[in-house]
Amino acid sequence: MSRIRLTGMAAAVAILVAATTWTAIPQGKGLLTEKAISTDMAITMAQAALAKCRADNYHVSVHVMDVDGMDKVAIRDDGSGEVNFTVSKQKAFTALTYKRPSSVTEKAMANISPARIIPGIFAVGGGLPVKVGDEVIGAIGVGGAPGSDKDEACAQAGLDKVADLLK
């Protein structure tokens, strides 16, 4: 048998074995079905958070993230600076990463060494996870009100606006 023919047969056997291995998907482990924040829902949440802060005369920034930590919506209101924009994103990221309000993470990290904090985390109130039941599907963060409790109230207004869709 020629070397070329032998090499070709070996390659064919390797492909057949690999194909057999790759297609053996365990029962129930095939197609994934996930809940996700739609763009329209993210816009609605962000607008409701912004409206709440504006009603209280605060100029803030709002971020809504999907479950992968990607921005769905980012708004910087008139009079809201770059630092508020960055902080709102980091608060959303903190809520998403720890799957709890960023204000809870703030309390939990009071005695943790800064060297142990994940980059991009801003453990200050104003970030809330977006949940369907116990499943976190994203997060909303607000930054720029005069106090993290006020940021969190605006973020909560965003969640409240879409609460019926999160059931």
Summarize the structure in words.
- The protein is globular, with a radius of gyration of 23 Å.
- A four-stranded antiparallel sheet has the order 2-1-4-3.
- The protein has five helices and four strands, in the order ααββααββα.
- A hairpin with a 2-residue loop joins β3 (127-132) and β4 (135-143).
- It starts with a helix and ends in a 6-residue tail after the last helix.
- It has helices at residues 3-23, 39-55, 82-98, 102-108, 148-161; strands at residues 61-66, 71-76, 127-132, 135-143.
- It has 167 residues and is an alpha+beta fold.
- The protein has one domain (39-166): 2-Layer Sandwich (Beta-Lactamase), CATH 3.30.450.150.
CATH class: Alpha Beta
Distance between the termini: 66 Å
Q: What characteristic shape results from the CA principal axes?
A: globular
Structural class of the helices, strands and pairings? alpha+beta
Distinct helical segment count: 5
CATH architecture annotation name = 2-Layer Sandwich
Number of strands: 4
Would you identify the CATH H-level superfamily? Haem-degrading domain
Secondary-structure map:
Blueprint: H1 3-23, H2 39-55, E1 61-66, E2 71-76, H3 82-98, H4 102-108, E3 127-132, E4 135-143, H5 148-161
Helix pairs in contact: 2-5
Descriptive key words:
167 residues, alpha+beta, Beta-Lactamase, four-stranded antiparallel beta sheet, 4 strands, 46% helix, 16% strand, globular
Task: Quickly describe the structure.
This protein is an alpha+beta fold and 167 residues long. The chain is built from five helices and four strands, in the order H-H-E-E-H-H-E-E-H. It has a four-stranded antiparallel β-sheet with strand order 2-1-4-3.
